[in-house]
Amino acid sequence: MSALAVEVWRGGAQGAFQSFEVPRHPSQTVLDVVTYIQRSLDATLAYRFACRVGMCGSCAMSVNGVPRWTCRTHVDKVARENKLVIGPLRNLPVIRDLVTDMRGFFDKWARAKGSFAGTKTKRDDFARVAPDSADRRKVDAGIECIGCGVCYSACDVVAWNPDYLGPAALNRAWTLVKDERDVVKHERLRAVAGDAGCHACHTHMSCTERCPMGLAPTAAISGLKRAVLGSVLKGEL
Ligand code: SF4
Ligand code: SF4
Ligand code: FES
């Protein structure tokens, strides 16, 4: 069985890469490699995962310089000359080894008013949204975000301007702006209209290229820009 040469980030922001040799297996994922290191070579390695099947969004790391969900990334597809370099996601503080502090990322969802606000109570009938309405289709296109942070790590504007809300929070805001049951649309558009909001996006598309769920935050952000402009012209903002 051949071996894979793996460099893994150790420590905090001032840490360094450590070398390991990991046996190759058919259908081996990058998360399998990290798990092997932690279970068989160095039990102190810190990393994060939960579902192993692409649902929880917790296993994202930088793999050979590219942010990816590691449980669904096969070594065969990303190893270069039988080597892997695995580090923590960019644009987030490193807690230790491969674990980043996601608080800033999710705080921005709150800043973008990423929570649904409706008027129905549990005593009301279910609110119904026509499945084929134009707005519902726009929501459908962005709703499957798993909060993995891959887009945020891929975004150069986040790197230049740490205050920028980023693609995931703005994508979330867009799905709520297009949700006909939501009642705080103007507040939400105001929240994403500032210097750190949708207009800061340079349309680089890295988020859309990298999103493992196939979402298109760039299109969502363009939708927000149009919605903000429309509301400004109507004197609503
Ligand atoms: S399209 Fe906008 S949000 Fe997406 S990576 Fe580029 S600058 Fe960032
Ligand atoms: S938009 Fe895609 S890449 Fe960004 S957090 Fe959601 S699932 Fe992950
Ligand atoms: S472990 Fe849940 S998405 Fe990878």
CATH topology of the largest domain: Fumarate Reductase Iron-sulfur Protein, Chain B, domain 2
The description of the largest β-sheet is: 5 strands, mixed
Radius of gyration: 20 Å
Give the SSE order as H and E letters.
EEHEEHEEEHHHHHHHH
Could you tell me the strand content as a percent range?
Answer: 5-15%
Describe this structure in words.
This protein has a 5-stranded mixed beta sheet with strand order 2-1-5-3-4. Strands 6-7 form a two-stranded antiparallel sheet. It is an alpha+beta fold and 237 residues long. It has 2 domains: 3-100, Roll (Ubiquitin-like (UB roll)), CATH 3.10.20.30; 103-233, Fumarate Reductase Iron-sulfur Protein, Chain B, domain 2 (Orthogonal Bundle). Helix 3 packs parallel to helix 7 and helix 7 (167-177) packs across helix 10 (217-233). The N and C termini lie far apart (63 Å). A hairpin with a 2-residue loop joins strand 3 (60-63) and strand 4 (66-69). The protein contains 10 helices and 7 strands. The radius of gyration is 20 Å and the shape is elongated. One iron/sulfur cluster is lined by residues 154-155, 157, 167, 201-207, 217-218, 221.
